[in-house]
Amino acid sequence: MKEATPMGRPAEASEEKATVALLTPLPNGKVLAALCSLNSIDGKVIETGAGAFAVLDDTSEGAVDNAGKAISTFLKEQPMLAMERRGGHITIHRWSAGEKGESLSPGFALDQAPSAITNLMMGTENIEDFAVTHPDKVHDANMGRFKAFKELRKMAKEANRREGL
Q1: N or C: where does the chain have the smaller number of CB atoms within 10 Å of the terminal CB?
Q2: By the 8 A CB rule, do 74 and 24 touch?
Q3: pLDDT of 121 strictly over 50
């Protein structure tokens, strides 16, 4: 006999794939992709008006905390958000300087977020859907550490050249 599903929740919700993501203040998705790679965090990064948003390949328990600690340590005092969607339930925590901060209400945290982030966290869209419509805004974080380091150096040189340093 098949178990009944709770009211208000579709049967497939318990079987849906989890989403684990980081929203950073970094304006350049390539930078976040390289930082993820240097820290052995695989996934894809979306460049949005609110900052770079990394959707992680590892959706296991604790993966978001490991990624949040690694990336927020690099960002120092700039806060970022670590998000998880499991079984239709979204949890969001603020991270700063490698330390996990307070839990935020998903409605509050996603209220002003770009639709791409909201759709991904609500489960109405996935990263592959977004990549089809915005290929120039999606960057792969699945690169070797040496390539990631080279990418960061190249971007730093380009930034210095633009600034006249």
Answers
A1: N
A2: no
A3: yes
